[in-house]
Each structure stands twice: as C-alpha cells, then as structure tokens.
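Form 7-S
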Amino acid sequence: MTVDEAVAFLAACYGLRASALTPIGAAGDAGRALYRITDEQGRSWVLRSYRVDGRVAPWLGGAAAPEWMDGRAALLAALERRGYPAPRPLPARDGGLVARDDTWCAFVEGFIAGAPLAWSSSDDIRALAEALGRLHTLAPVPQAPPSWWHPVDHAAARALAALGPAGPDIPDEWRALHARFASALAFFRDHRDHADLPVTLIHGDCWPANAVRTSAGQVALIDWECAGLGAAVLDLGGLLADCHPDPAPGASIAVTPEPVAAVVVGYSQYRRLSPAELDVLPDVARFGVAFVGALRYLWARQDGWNERIERSLHRLRARFDAASSAAELAREQITRSS
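Output:
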C-alpha cells in the first residue's frame, strides 16, 4: 500500500483525513504496509494493512490476512472493554473494526505516546512486570486468536523449520549457537507434557522496548502483533531473558538480582506461578530467544550474511546465555517468598 493508496483508503473507509504518513518497517514488502498517521486534528494513529489475498508470515501462524487482522482488531477491542492499557482500535465507517476494499484489508489503532522505559530502572522493570501480570489475569476473551507461540509445540516446529539445517553456509562463529537454538526449540516440539501450562492472553513480545510510560504515569504495552492465547509463562520467561540492558557488542550479560527481583515482585502483584510453570521456567526463558534467533538464520539464508544479522545474533547469544541464569534466580526468589 503506497502512501497515496493509504490516504485514499483512510478517507474512504474511516473518514480519516491524514496530514502526514510515516512508514514503520515493512519497507519493500508489497504485500503489507504499516504507517503512523497524523490526522488533521493532530491525533496519531497506526494503520496496519495486508493485501486481501495475502497471508501473514509463517512464524505468525501463516493465516489468511483478513482472518488474522480480524483477530488482532478483536483482541484490542476486548482489551479496551476490560480497561487494559493497549492501543484502541478505531471503528471503520461501516461499524466494523477491519476495513476492506478490492485490494487491501486494514485496521487503524490509536498510537500510544509516552516515554521509553529505562532498562536500568528497577521501577520501570517492575511496572512492566505488573502490566504483564495484570494481562495474564484478565477474564477469558471468547474466540481469542492464538498468539504466535500457541500451541507451543506447533510454534517450536515452525521455528525449527525457519532455523533450517546446519549447512555449510553458516559461518563457523554461528554454528554452535544454531545448535543451541535447535536444542531449545526441539525440547518444546518433542515434549507433549506442556499441556498443563496455564493458557491466558499473552503479549508474545514483552520487553522494555515494547512498552512506554504515558503522561499519566501508566506503563502500557505496544506492538500487539504477536499477541493472543498462549502459555502465560512464555511471556514471563521472555521478560526475564530481556530484563537486563544490552551489553557491549560481543560481551556477555552479567545477571544481577535487582532486575530479576523487579520482575518477580511486579508480576507477583497479580499472579503466582503454578508448580508446572516454575519447573519449566528456565526452558521457556530460552525458548523466546531461540524462536527469534531462528528467524535471523532464516533471513540470513534469504538475504545473505551481513553486519545487521551478525549484530542481532551477538545480542541474542548474550540473551540466550543469560536467560537460564535469570530464570533460575527468579525461581529461587519465588520459592523463598512462597
């Protein structure tokens, strides 16, 4: 969707007159587009669009684009009804949440302005964990869409397919990490005893970069592309893997008690882990890192090895190494407080 197409679509389907559109990612993808919009009143929105005959990426589940967008918009509407801080969907002129023409399907959500969270702030990390714990205790949403991690064995199988074999195209430096990612993902693909992990609404990509502190002082999660039903502990494990600031390129993460305690204290304000969740916590902390890492190997096969891929893998290797230590420390803190 070009800028001109987006302007016309917004006017026709939403009665929204855009004074400025700024692309957000997805550059060069003819099948989808993401724009930040400023309307004539100075309000900010986000437009998500896919071709009506398209499908979302396999790692997001591979569903038909209109079906997937219906699920995203319905989820945000359900969060609004429950008073949970998240982007609010804007109804189209016909009253629906997803608008369509002959070529495109799209929905518009409010843009949440706010200050980035500080990785080094225990207060910010605790507030983010509180927001996550609150999400996991919301009343069930009828016919909620699956997250990109649900069911987890299917998600792990998709990630392993993206990771691919350890072929000769992989540089020597990254072969060991490939094997570690494969092992972490295979654990969830091959072990069918994770059905007893409680399933809730999850965000699927909860880390400080995907949250802001609003002018009212509230921490709100943004970027709900990966959200939906899923095992709650996967979300928590992901936050534990990402609660420390990024190290210098190539350096390791020194896991310290303060950010881990901030996650535990904040999350526990709303929800306690089950014994099954505590048992698997180190494994799920590695899972999220390996899942994202598998996509980096896929993109390297598609586009070639480059500095951006290797910089990302340096970061993910540090996260993967720290994930188990952070989760073990969290488990100790939870057990002591019980």
